[in-house]
Write a structure and sequence with these properties.
The complex is a heterodimer of chains A (about 110) and B (about 425). With about 110 residues, chain A is α+β, with helices and mostly antiparallel strands. Helix content of chain A is about 20%, strand content about 35%. Chain A has two helices and six strands, in the order E-H-E-E-E-E-H-E. In chain A, the strands form two sheets. Chain A has a four-stranded antiparallel beta sheet, covered by helices on one side. In chain A, strand 3 and strand 4 form a beta hairpin. The radius of gyration of chain A is 16 Å and the shape is globular. The two termini of chain A are about 15 Å apart. Chain B is elongated, with a radius of gyration of 26 Å. Among the domains of chain B are: about 5-105; about 105-210, no CATH class; about 335-415, Serine Threonine Protein Phosphatase 5, Tetratricopeptide repeat (Alpha Horseshoe). Classes of the chains: A alpha+beta (about 110), B mainly alpha (about 425). Chains A and B meet through helix 2 of A and loops of B.
């Protein structure tokens, strides 16, 4: 089953806390998940000040600067993994280095009802 | 078959239901991979038992018969649903193929299923109220209405919690398994917390419906026993011991009119010795493992109280020592407060009062009624009536429960009656 692990953190402190992971550590972990055969995709994101939000209402496209919602913690990156069950997905999530300074939301991927 | 025999069969089925229904359910959930389907299958199986055992007699292994019947009932019902939803037919076929994996005669397999059920119901991915509701419903077999009454909420709220929890188990694929070694400590905490919460709900919260609350404590003790039998981890022993030792004082902890009696004032002849002995032995066993935690330590403290012939003859030095260890393991101001009260008994009232004042001045327990009640008690015994009055009043404002409010009002009234210095060592916090 696929799970999306959404990594949230306070962007202002993500890289500056004593527990903050360095990019090398993040890469090493991503590679270890890759080797375990459970990785589908994983990426880190630029800060939300680079975000642009698109909405289409009544056929009209509206583009605004900024994230979908202002929150205390922002989406900093994600892992899309293929895990046996929630426990395995949680294990992958708890070892994501950024979990030490942020939070990881684990969401099962829904199969579209086709 | 005559009417008498038919009644006997029904009684047998009832008895098997009480004794085995949870185990049957636990195994069916594993075999069918779905809570709802398993529950329906179990009820169908028991209904079939009433009818078939009358004709062919009670099988040698009723549990195995019921699991097997439940499994076939589930496959049947999936087949019927397949008329509307083709995917159900595939599931039914898979279930039939998986026949070999199932050996209901093996007691260890059944025990594992019970553990799987407990760990799944208490999975930390479920919200705590749902963990409690699901555990009482699925593991203890309480009706939704009973769970609702015990937690002073409506059956529809409880039902909704359970439905949502089952949906999450299914959609997020929370596995039906006993956690691995490295997951165990964290997952065990969650199970122990649910059991202790059920116990405290039955023990601490006063309610007009006393019988339900007592049942809830008994249910928690039953759960604790089950967990300890299945998984004899030190903290499972510790929690069971703690519950038994608290429960041993039930008859002594309130007057017939429901007024609270503090530990030091309780009639110790009313304490249930059988439970004290069982609890004490469990504490010893847990301590001997050297892998114990906060539940065992709290139980050890309760055991020292339980084994003392009177408040004055209590080994307060040992209690202070146990609180020291507990505080190192779980540094919390409440533990610190309890330790301070024990210090008052060991080193004198003023020593205890100094420690309580340090905690209060730090601001940690300013809104905790028992901190002010403890301060009031020590001041009263030291003859500092005015300070005692102020602290009792503060505690009264903060006390959440009627029983505690009555108690504090009585103490305030007593202050007016007997302004003389009282030297008896009365009143140490609550009886917890």
């Amino acid at each position: 089953m696929k799970y999306l692990c959404l990594v949230y953190s306070d962007e202002d402190t993500l890289h500056s806390l004593s527990d903050s992971p360095r990019d090398e550590e993040c890469l090493a972990y991503a590679e270890s998940v890759q080797r375990s055969g459970r990785m589908i995709a994983a990426e880190a994101l630029h800060p939300v000040r680079t975000a642009t939000t698109v909405r289409v209402r009544g056929g009209k496209t509206n583009i605004t600067d900024g994230p979908f919602a202002e929150t205390k913690e922002q989406l900093a990156g994600f892992y899309l993994v293929d895990a046996r069950d929630l426990n395995e997905a949680l294990q992958i999530a708890e070892n994501i280095p950024a979990a030490r300074v942020g939070s990881v939301e684990v969401r099962p991927v829904r199969e579209l009802g086709l | 078959m005559n009417e008498h025999e038919a009644r006997q069969i029904r009684q047998t089925v009832d008895m098997v239901y009480r004794g085995e229904s949870r185990r049957v359910l636990a195994t069916l959930i594993r075999l069918l991979g779905d809570f709802q389907l398993a529950e329906e299958a179990m009820h169908d199986a028991f209904a079939a038992a009433v009818e078939q055992w009358q004709r062919v007699g009670v099988p040698a292994n009723p549990r195995a018969w019921l699991v097997s019947a439940g499994r076939f009932k589930a496959i049947d019902s999936l087949r019927r649903r397949a008329c509307f939803d083709a995917s159900q037919a595939e599931i039914a076929r898979q279930l039939e193929d998986e026949n070999d994996a199932f050996m209901p005669d093996e007691d260890t397999a059944v025990e594992d299923d019970c553990l799987r059920l407990i760990f799944t119901c208490c999975h930390p991915a479920l919200p705590p109220p749902a963990q409690v509701a699901l555990t009482l419903r699925e593991v203890c077999g309480l009706a939704t209405e009973e769970v609702a009454r015990a937690f002073l909420t409506t059956p529809s709220t409880v039902a909704q919690r359970i439905v949502r929890a089952k949906a999450k188990i299914r959609d997020a694929r929370i596995p039906y398994q006993v956690p691995s070694r490295d997951e165990l400590p964290m997952r065990m905490d969650s199970v122990l917390r649910v059991i202790y919460l059920v116990f405290n709900e039955g023990y601490s919260t006063p309610s007009s419906d006393i019988s339900i609350r007592n049942d809830l404590s008994e249910e928690a003790i039953r759960l604790g026993r089950l967990l300890m039998t299945l998984l004899p981890e030190p903290e499972a022993m510790g929690l069971l011991a703690l519950m038994l030792l608290h429960e041993s004082r039930r008859a002594a902890r309130a007057t017939t009119t429901g007024e609270l009696i503090l530990l030091n004032d309780q009639d110790r002849a009313l304490w249930n010795q059988e439970r004290i002995i069982e609890g004490g032995a469990l504490v010893e066993r847990a301590l001997a493992t050297h892998r114990f935690g906060p539940y065992t330590l709290q139980a050890a403290i309760a055991a020292v109280h339980a084994e003392a012939p009177s408040a004055a003859e209590t080994d307060w030095a040992q209690i202070v020592g146990l609180y020291d260890v507990l505080f190192r393991m779980e540094p919390s101001p409440v533990v610190e407060l309890n330790r301070a009260v024990a210090v008052a008994m060991r080193d004198g009232l003023e020593a205890g009062l100094r420690l309580i004042d340090i905690i209060l001045e730090r601001g940690d327990l300013q809104d905790y009624h028992l901190a002010h009640a403890a301060r009031a008690d020590l001041c009263r015994q030291l003859g500092r009536q005015e300070e005692a009055r102020v602290a009792y009043q503060r505690a009264l404002c903060l006390a959440p429960q009627q029983q505690e409010q009555w108690f504090l009002e009585r103490r305030l009234a007593e202050l007016d009656e007997e302004p003389t210095l009282e030297l008896k060592g009365r009143g140490v916090l609550s009886d917890q």
